């Protein structure tokens, strides 16, 4: 999949994106509802013989306008790109959402981005999609622009499970409730974080429980606390582990991170890509009286995780 970063990398010079079918949105989580949109898009791409293109924004609009109240991120840009590539999307356009982009009128967005930049032949968007300065553009505006510039416009098909529309909001609610089976049902895959293992302050090693640290690169996390997880190091094996996600209040932490202790594992993981998939919530994040109490609770977390995995093994 080709990744295009920024509108400045679109036309007017010859570019492979100058004829495509496209869709626009946050695609946070890239869940089963999004998968249905991608399938719809690919059908039109095959019909017209042009690539499929997904346009996303960084930061997401609500993160730009109201970062304090924006919803927690389910996926980073890299995670979105990996999932969309697996779905067979040909191109991903990442648009920087800033004041300059917000200043584009609806007409400029259609003429400069959709037509002049992407060469859209068919557009698939939600019928509640709003765009352009002061959100003047809507689905009817796009239909008129399509009639003028010669591209088709189609509303996304509603995708529901058990009679309810699949949405990123439903997934966040499932995660907040610790219902990872429901989240997986809506996503079509286990929920997790991925990233490159980074150096920390080595506190876990000092306590006898070394951890692989990830910076999840999200404005907000949909999860906080301690969990039994699978750790995937990209070698075809999933390893049982226990993970803590939070700001580490016992040691005065302020920036939240994901710390994962792989059970019965030895080895240097620094710099390796790792994906952490969540299975069961063990407890909330807590501030303990000191390192001794912290160590006792970590040991207890590990024991609970072992019991969880023992039950999984027995069920298999």
Brief overview:
The protein is of the alpha/beta class and 316 residues long. It has helices spanning 32-48, 61-65, 77-86, 99-102, 106-118, 139-149, 168-176, 180-187, 203-206, 291-315; strands at 2-5, 20-24, 52-58, 91-96, 120-125, 152-155, 160-161, 164-165, 192-196, 212-214, 225-232, 238-246, 257-262, 273-283. β5 (120-125), α6 and β6 (152-155) form a beta-alpha-beta unit.
Uncertain residue segments: 13-17
N-to-C SSE string, H for helix and E for strand: EEHEHHEHHEHEEEHHEHEEEEEH
The tally of strands reads 14
Shape: elongated
Span of the ends, CA to CA: 36 Å
Work out the helicity level. Answer: 25-40%
**CATH topology group of the largest domain:** Rossmann fold
Oligomer: single chain
Beta-strand content bin: 15-25%
CATH H level, superfamily name of the largest domain = HUPs
How are strands sequenced across the largest beta sheet? 1-4-3-2-5-6
Query: Which CATH C-level class of the largest domain is it?
Result: Alpha Beta
